[in-house]
Amino acid sequence: MTGLQLPANLKTIISSVLILLGAYGLLFLLSLVIWTFRDIRSRSRDVLVQILATLLVLVFNIPGLLLYFVLRPQETLTEAYEHALGQEALLQDIEERYICPNCKRKVDADFAVCPFCQHELRKHCQNCARLLNLNWDLCPYCGQQQVAETPAPETPVQETPVQETPVEVTPVQETEEVHGTAQ
């Protein structure tokens, strides 16, 4: 029986292919470790977490990478910062909306009185006449101390007995001056 002729240098070819596959596997593992380190560095500032995640992939290879995908933080530090900025912008937008505390309707920031319910929203400085918040005791624009405007205490009115005197009523004659047609 004639057998297949194997090349004489078959061992050399197999060892070359195995060396290439090993080098490829080593480069693949190295690239996984580098990618993991860069990814965890963009997601966490904690150095210990960065080292542990990198060692997880280095020791356990692809299963370690899968475990890293499960355990890693969902957003990067940049995404978390942008998210926080967005929330802060929304809060600032909400705070900048002025609402009448009495009728709860939207009013402009420079209104002194609510146009809907006539509730006093702000007061004028006694010195420079700029609008101030009601709870400010000092004008931040001119430095004038604001004196609280307190209404004068009501003094009880003493009732004096009224004597009824007969009043004589005389008829009034209409003249041209009364109707405004005087010339």
Largest beta-sheet characterization: 2 strands, antiparallel
Number of helices: 3
Rg estimate, integer Å: 44 Å
User: Using DSSP, what is the number of strands?
Assistant: 4
* Secondary-structure element string: HHHEEEE
Structural class designation: mainly alpha
What percentage of residues falls in helices of 4 or more residues?
A: 40-55%
Task: Determine the mean pLDDT.
Answer: 82
- Regions with pLDDT < 50 over 5+ consecutive residues? none
Q: Any idea what the shape is? A: rod-shaped
Strand order of the largest sheet: 1-2
N/C terminus separation: 149 Å
Query: Which percent band covers the strand fraction?
Result: 5-15%
TL;DR?
The protein is mainly alpha-helical and 183 residues long. The chain has helices at residues 10-43, 47-71, 77-96, and strands at 98-99, 106-107, 122-124, 131-133. The strands form two sheets. Strands 1-2 form a two-stranded antiparallel ribbon.
Task: Provide the fold topology.
Elements: H1 10-43, H2 47-71, H3 77-96, E1 98-99, E2 106-107, E3 122-124, E4 131-133
Antiparallel strand pairs: 1-2, 3-4
Helix pairs in contact: 1-2
What can you see in these coordinates?
The chain contains 3 helices and 4 strands; from the N terminus they run H-H-H-E-E-E-E. It is mainly alpha-helical. Among the domains are: 68 residues, no CATH class; 50 residues, no CATH class. The strands form 2 sheets. The protein has a two-stranded antiparallel sheet with strand order 1-2. Strands 3-4 form a two-stranded antiparallel ribbon. Strand 1 and strand 2 form a beta hairpin. Helix 1 packs across helix 2. The chain is rod-shaped and about 120 Å long.
